[in-house]
Amino acid sequence: MIAPAERLSIRLTVNGRVVEREVSARLSLADFLREGLGLTGTHVGCEHGVCGACTVLVDRRSARSCLLFAVQLDGAAVTTIEGLTPAEGLSSLQEAFCAAHAMQCGFCTPGMVVVATELLRSNPSPSPGEIREALAGNLCMCTGYVNIVKAIAQAGAAARLGAGAAS
What we know:
5 strands; alpha+beta
């Protein structure tokens, strides 16, 4: 059995970069990302996995980083909002969020974008109901979700148009 104070070595890929660290057995992935790697785009809200603000992609699937210990991710690939943001500017999904006024305070936005990224990868043409279902685990206290749903639908449509133009 691992003692909570024990430190363990982990190696994982974060936003395409291999990271090796020695961490406490009880360090959350959220704290590892924010404090250990300086990736503060992953927000910590409820710390119980309810709000979705801390959502990241683990091996391309959305996961609540506040519910995972960093040591659980040894060998995994983690993508944060920073990893979804191009070096120059914003991703098309992030631009759609801006264009559709899909954020107000912005606290929930990184988790929403991460979940939307996963959704659009698996379903490039989601219905409004499918978008709302995908977002069910991400809480927003400001927007009412209408413009978030619109932004995700617009990003999907733009990606489909871009794919059609590339063929």
